[in-house]
Amino acid sequence: MERITISLDxxxxxxFEEYLKRRNYRNRSEAIRDMIRDTLEADRMxxxxxxxxxxxxxxxxxxxxxxxxxxxTHAHHHHHDVSVSTLHVHLDHExxxxxxxxxxxxxxxxxxxxxxITQPGVRHGRLNLIPVEVHQEHHHHGSGAxxxxxxxxxx
Length: 155
Hints:
With 155 residues, this protein is α+β, with helices and mostly antiparallel strands. It folds into two domains: 10-47; 52-137 and 148-153, 2-Layer Sandwich (Alpha-Beta Plaits). It has helices at 10-23, 28-47, 68-78, 106-117; strands at 52-62, 83-90, 95-105, 122-141, 144-153. It has a five-stranded antiparallel beta sheet. Ni(2+) binds at residues 77, 88, 90, 96.
């Protein structure tokens, strides 16, 4: 690990210290590392068209909206290759929250998210992606070798 030194003006360091307290960081270094990772991941996602990612798509929707449940189910089935798992929570008598774990080529994941978020009746949609490297590997598990993929965060 390499040590670096940075200089910050008093106002910026004051705001940063307040941020550390709100987020319960134990030290400045870990917060700065997280900020650098977030910035590098966002930049990487913007710069490449063929990257692979994992992440979550979260959205709130009104299940009383005409045909919305059918349209959402269609979007999930149409993009079954990137939709890994869904958590469904009832918020009140009309509104539900769903969080979908996604995994796949970034552009396909974004297409799925757009197909869901743009549906009439869907509100507060947010896609959170983490770029990953995909490795095909052979492992010996039990009775023989199995080929499967591993995903590893890029930062």
